[in-house]
Write a structure and sequence with these properties.
This protein is of the alpha/beta class. It contains 14 helices and 20 strands. The chain folds into two domains: 317 residues, FAD/NAD(P)-binding domain, CATH 3.50.50; 157 residues, Flavocytochrome C3, Chain A, domain 1. The relative contact order is 0.20. The N terminus is likely disordered. This is Fumarate reductase.
Length: 492
């Protein structure tokens, strides 16, 4: 319930960005005090990249897992996924700070799932994605993708329960953070932003930055930190990153060179040279999908995104289609996998990204690959999967007998720039720091951050399903902290 205590008018809580991190912060701030809550969004429509999320959100243990009480490996999987940036960090203090952030992420994952299901979001289907030792990525049983379902529910709750205290302003660009004084680290006092009509406005209050990453900033931050990735397509809209606004008030950056290449972006046969591509959700592989090059498997599809991407990019590139660097790899789902992922599959088929064909119409090499794989899945003749895959999702083809008339789904995929693990340094309270990772912490008063704009959590590689989780966990922390700060400012 909202507080109704009579007190001096508090400052507003200002949230920059309307993706899942921003909405989680907004909803929590509305329930943590009496302050009005402003969301400032540069796009015309709210939701950000969170709206596109297609695989789900991690949580462990939860009531939806088959062996919830036995899944204590989420922290360990995340540590392992972080790779060299955690294992070989510059200092034990830096490693300890990373571990604290990972501990918060994983240990609050159960509460994150409870929070969303409490809002009416269906998260009853659980899938094992690449890099995970257990099934812990949650989505709904219907056809609505998890990003759409979660973002829509939170936005509606903010509007309905926030009433006049909740204000969403779209089409505005935050250009500057207002500071409390001339000296570094004296604190953030608000924002300066430009409206869609060109007017410059200011708003005073504590600030939560939730503007996302820079995977679509091809000629800006991406070119600055990873020029070697030029030419790769992306899942992100071509928009500039907002990190320079934060560094202008003393925020430090970490892991900016750590950019995740997602191994499976769809190549649209009608427009193969498009730079912006639809993600082929990782859950397609989690439910049983396999990857083929010239009709043969070449990788364990449930390795981490980093390793699957490396395997694909180790193959010969396809002929250049415009300026893009692309590969010609096929994603194939058998009847069992396609049925388990039907909500996604039907959309991809409608978009022309997946094609339904019969087994008998595949080339002979592909048909033989499927027969060999089916024998490994069913354990026939003592065969094992030669690529090391141990979880086969809902693969069914050939397990109870071969059927040439069975229908499979096939589409072309290629690696794409998807997610940026680097960003501003934060602590476990989501405070933005003016100190480097592992140094004595110097929080910037009045400034918090959550979601992809932050760094230090994922290291070399982000586990699928942890981006939405990060948004909920640190969004809720930042919203609560900012609301408390706003109340103190109002009382002063």
């Amino acid at each position: 319930m909202f507080h109704n205590a009579h007190s001096p008018k508090p400052l507003p809580v200002i949230i920059v960005g309307s993706g899942l991190a921003g909405l989680s912060a907004a909803y929590t701030a509305l329930h943590s005090g009496t302050s009005p809550v402003y969301i400032l969004e540069r796009a015309v429509k709210p939701g950000g990249n969170s709206f596109k999320a297609s695989s789900g959100i991690n949580g462990a243990p939860t009531p939806f897992q088959h062996a919830a009480s036995g899944d204590g490996a989420f922290y360990d999987d995340t540590i392992r996924s972080a790779g060299r940036r955690l294992a070989g960090g510059p200092s034990s203090e830096a490693r300890a700070q990373r571990e604290r952030l990972i501990r918060v992420l994983t240990e609050r994952s159960t509460r994150a799932i409870d929070f969303l299901t409490g809002l009416g979001v269906d998260l009853s289907v659980v899938t094992q994605l690449g890099g995970h030792s257990n099934a812990r990525t949650h989505r709904g049983a219907g056809k609505t993708p998890p990003g759409v379902a979660i973002v829509s529910a939170l936005l509606e709750k903010c509007k309905a329960e926030g009433g006049e205290r909740f204000k969403l302003v779209t089409g505005c660009e935050v250009r500057k953070l207002l500071t409390s004084g001339e000296k570094e680290n004296e604190g953030v006092a608000g924002v300066e932003y430009q409206t869609e009509g060109g007017e410059v406005e200011t708003l005073k209050g504590p600030v939560v930055f939730a503007t996302g990453g820079f995977a679509g900033d091809t000629h800006g931050l991406l070119a600055r930190y990873r020029p070697d990735l030029s030419g790769l397509p992306s899942t992100n809209e071509p928009r500039p990153g907002c990190h320079d606004v934060l560094t202008a008030v003393g925020a430090r950056l970490v892991d900016m060179e750590s950019v995740q290449i997602h191994p499976t972006g769809f190549v649209d046969p009608q427009n193969p040279g498009a730079r912006l591509k639809f993600l082929a959700a990782e859950m397609l592989r989690g439910e049983g999908g396999i990857l083929l090059y010239k009709g043969k498997r070449f990788v364990n599809e449930l390795e981490t995104r980093e390793r699957v991407s490396e395997a694909i990019m180790g193959l010969p590139e396809a002929e250049r289609e415009g300026e893009l660097r692309q590969w010609d790899v096929q994603l194939l789902l058998d009847p069992g996998a396609a049925k388990a992922a039907e909500g996604h599959v039907s959309f991809y088929v409608w978009k022309g990204l997946l094609k339904r064909v019969k087994v008998k119409d595949l080339d002979e090499t592909t048909r033989q690959t499927l027969k060999d794989y089916a024998e490994a899945v069913s354990g026939k003749e003592g065969k094992v999967d030669g690529k090391g895959r141990r979880a086969f999702g809902h693969w069914s083809l050939g397990v109870e007998g071969w059927d040439d008339e069975a229908g499979v789904c096939v589409g072309r995929i290629t690696p794409i720039v998807h997610f940026t693990m680097g960003g501003v340094v934060i602590n476990e309270h989501a405070q933005v720091l003016s100190s480097d990772l592992g140094q004595d912490q110097r929080p910037i008063p009045g400034l918090w951050a959550a979601g992809e704009v932050t760094g230090g959590i994922h290291g070399d590689n982000r586990l699928g399903g942890s981006s939405l989780l990060e948004c909920v966990v640190f969004g809720r922390i930042s919203g609560e902290q900012a609301a408390a700060d706003a109340a103190r400012g109002g009382a002063a």
